[in-house]
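Posted in: Structural Biology > Protein-Ligand Complexes

Title: Requesting predicted complex, iron/sulfur cluster in pocket

I'd be grateful if someone could produce the 3D structure tokens for the following input. Sequence and ligand are given below.
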Amino acid sequence: MKDINNMTKDELRNEFKSLGLQAFRGNQVFKWINSGIESLEEINNISKKDKEIIVEKYRLNKIKLIKKYEDAIDGTKKYLFRLSDNNIIETVLMKYKYGYSICISSQAGCRMGCDFCASTIEGLERNLTAGEMSDQIITVEKLEKIRISNIVIMGSGEPLDNYDNTIKFINLANDPEGLNKGQRHITLSTCGLVPEIYKLADLKLQINLSVSLHAPSDSLRKKLMPIAKKYSIKELIEACNYYYGKTNRKITFEYAMINKVNDTAECARLLVDLLKKMDNAMVNLIPVNEITEREFKKSAKDSVESFSEILKRGNISHTVRRKLGSEIEAACGQLRRGHIKP
Ligand code: SF4
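-- Reply #1 --
Done. Output follows.
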């Protein structure tokens, strides 16, 4: 049985036509799916006969909430969801002044092996479908009775390692008859899969690209992120420039500040040298999420301040991000791991 919520509106229209139904039934069913129905039986504006055909051919593959956590200090919410094959994923909802932002997972687990990340410790279980990605948003909007304004594909998984499903998800989320999230409100975060950044750029989408940099030199980056052994920082920056050339969208570089690892004045100066020629770059300095499985500690406040000062003097636009959800282990993969580990 096909998952009906993993189909775009056009796919639904075409398939329904081939089943002898009217194409506009595709639009109707697509709207119902995005409204958060739990079963296809809830659809009440199509004929009984048409509904029987649809119910017989398709399944609505919903994710199921296992547990919800809420940070008492900043209100960040974290959800553990079970997929139909019993894999577990996590989703985070954050409230900002401008509205709600959701961080969704694109894979169950991850195979990228970043040293500071809990999501990768058990490796990759599998890719999520586009439907499973959009269902994280549909389910949280319904559960919390809110409209989410920003989507960040930055939860467990490397979205460009699940390229086709991620692009399909962006199409699903962007559809005005569906979740209706503008492309400029969607951010894709990658650890730096260079060929896929070129491929993505050629689509000329208006989404934001966020690159996990975390180190200003190849030698240090290789120690933290295995992907750096495959693609040098030079190759990564060239791909980012290509992305900017095609889309005119700013690129954000994520930099997790790790005590005495990548937070020295020397690292800050190297970062300035690296990015000063890019007029489209923005750096996010974030305290690293401390996970029990690794020894990394977040940088001391004064190291962050000195680092930020060097970037400022080098005219590198940057923000020092506050850390949300620390009470509930909001680090990517931590809760999921806590739930699956024996
Ligand atoms: S930081 Fe992202 S890409 Fe790296 S291991 Fe974790 S989930 Fe994968």
